[in-house]
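Repro:
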Amino acid sequence: MNKDEFAKSHLGLVHSLCSRFTGKGIEYDELYSAGCLGLAKAINNFDDSRGLQFSTYAFPVIMGELKRLFRDGGTVKVSRSLKELSLKINKLNNESELKNGRELSVSELAEKLGVAPEKIAEAVCSAQPTVSINSEDENAAAPEIPSPDIQYEITERLSLAAAIESLEENDKKIINLRYYRSKTQVETAKILNMTQVQISRREKKILSLIRQKMSG
């Protein structure tokens, strides 16, 4: 399966996550565009050697783009170059459909346009039309939508574990003592030969750092 087909097969995940933010002040088309950009980034950066399923990896990446959309005031920033690339891709695919009865693969498009395959995949994904998950067409194939609540919980825990793992050793000890062993700040301070004030200040900084890492 090439990258554009792979992207299309995971649009159900994009729809599922976008549905979490409907009715919160941003049109669904904007949410969907942001979700597709997140999906493209996840496809470009996914490393299957980590032993994670793609959907597990893509979940926080897409969520990060959706949250960024709200931080940026509801505007998806798609560069002009990406839009122009998308138009070129559509033109080549239309020509190939007429001549060969099929669209070109990502690698074929990359070779013809002299662009990295990752950029081709990003352009293809960002240009995907919005398809309602509540389509009235009974013959339309329904997108595969994972169970969002379970997926969310699993991915949040994985993201938290990864964020904690990236901390300095002493910071890991503070989090372990405070949140996994339920120690008070005074008890934690005694164990680590610090003052309660030092623990309090450091803990605030650690939690802020973890939130930043989890939000992407």
